Each structure stands twice: as C-alpha cells, then as structure tokens.
Amino acid sequence: MYTRNVLIQNRTGLHLRPASEFVAHATEFKSDITIRGVNDTEDCAVDAKSIILLLTIGLGQGDEAVITATGEDETKAVDSLVALIETKFGED
Hey, which residues are catalytic here? Predict the structure, then answer.
C-alpha cells in the first residue's frame, strides 16, 4: 500500500471535467486506488476509478485529498495522480 496527500489547487475543485480526467487516468493502472478527504475516515474513501463516487466526496479548492493504491503499480499510480492534481487540470 502506498499513500500520498495532495492539495486541490484548481479554482473549481474536482468538478465534472477534472474528475472525469482523474478517473480516466486512474483506470490506466492495475492497482486498486482510493481517494478521500484528509479529514474523512478511511471508511469514507471511494474508488478513484468511479466518477460518480469521486463526485460524491465533493473535493473543492483548498481541500486536501488522500490517495491510496494497493497493487503492482501502486507507487506509479499514486505519484501520477498527485502530479495530475498538481497541474490544476489546466485551470488557472
């Protein structure tokens, strides 16, 4: 298991377009990947490969997310998703 925290920096948070991009990227990996807010319990973590579940946790600008992966490409998956969030999804 590999976990990293990341700050949601883009103005609109993980709304539909960036969430869709995030999920598309997550599905490229074999590992099981979850995401949750840093203040949420582990029970609140959702499947990072599900757009509907990702949207339900409502991560907005300034929220800190916890991304966790378990599997053969766990480190690459988490690091890649953190890097994607850090690009602000092309938003200013």
Answer: 15
